[in-house]
Amino acid sequence: MNRIKRTDDATYEVIGFEVRGAITSDVDDRFGLLPRLRDPHTGEIHYGFNRVDEVGVTQFTLREIFAMGFTTDEYVAMIRFEAASSFEDHVRSEDELNALMDSQAAWKRRPADPDVTRPVSSARASAVEPLVAENEEIATRFGR
Question: Is there a domain that residue 22 lies in?
Answer without folding.
Answer: yes
